[in-house]
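Retry 2 of 3 after timeout on previous attempt. Resubmitting structure tokens to design endpoint.
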């Protein structure tokens, strides 16, 4: 069977800011698969929670939130002109808003809630029901698609991840220091890895890719080799 006939499920998990989504998007494009950014879904639900005033600075009003969660609809589209994936929340385009610092600061609180994870995992499983999907996140290979044909666990040292983020923010004119970014990355790793429900961990059958010293092309080629090995 060739890659064009059979469509598999590819789960890419790993630490924040290690370039998972960049590689996942390129891979999906090359294979003509659907790409799903599960982090964007957690961000969209967080935005919903904020807009409906279902949380304050660091506390979620869980009862009210749970009763409204079924009204949350999330879908993605692809802007061919900008070559960009777009996230929609209840038919409103929220791609830029969900990347704002206000959402980034609150998303780890919302993504720790059991009923939120249950709902999003169910939505993600429905999206990937027919295979032919590349999904990135923290629990894709362990919880969402434990039977995925290919699982990748991506990482890079916190210094390398911080350097990359520092460069990116610098070109946008930000004055944030490298030390602050390292602290923020290490804090997010800690939260992701130690939360009670679905903590970030490498699935026993995931392939570890440390991309500290790999170019994007090298990473992509490595993963393409792994994809091809699934069809042999
Ligand atoms: O990938 P990201 O940084 O955009 O993810 C945003 C947040 O959502 C991050 O705090 C981790 C959380 N997340 C999660 O808990 N499970 C996932 N499958 C994806 C993201």
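Retry 2 succeeded. Sequence:
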């Amino acid at each position: 069977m060739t890659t064009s006939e059979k469509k598999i499920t590819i789960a890419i998990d790993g630490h924040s800011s290690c370039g998972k989504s960049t590689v996942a998007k390129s891979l999906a494009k090359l294979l003509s698969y659907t790409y799903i950014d599960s982090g964007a879904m957690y961000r969209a639900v967080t935005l919903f929670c904020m807009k409906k005033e279902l949380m304050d600075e660091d506390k979620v009003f869980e009862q009210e939130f749970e009763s409204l969660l079924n009204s949350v609809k999330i879908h993605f589209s692809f802007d061919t002109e900008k070559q960009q994936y777009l996230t929609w929340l209840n038919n409103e385009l929220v791609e830029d808003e969900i990347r704002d610092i206000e959402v980034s600061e609150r998303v780890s609180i919302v993504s720790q809630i059991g009923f939120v994870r249950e709902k999003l995992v169910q939505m993600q499983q429905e999206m990937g029901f027919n295979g032919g999907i590349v999904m990135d996140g923290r629990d894709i290979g362990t919880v969402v698609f434990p039977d995925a044909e290919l699982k990748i666990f991506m990482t890079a040292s916190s210094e390398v991840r911080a350097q990359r983020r520092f460069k990116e923010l610098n070109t946008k004119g930000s004055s944030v220091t490298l030390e602050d970014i390292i602290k923020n990355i290490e804090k997010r790793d800690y939260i992701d890895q130690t939360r009670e429900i679905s903590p970030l961990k490498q699935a026993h059958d995931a392939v570890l890719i440390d991309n500290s010293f790999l170019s994007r092309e090298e990473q992509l080629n490595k993963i393409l080799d792994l994809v091809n090995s699934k069809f042999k």
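Attempt log closed. The chain has a mean pLDDT of 93.
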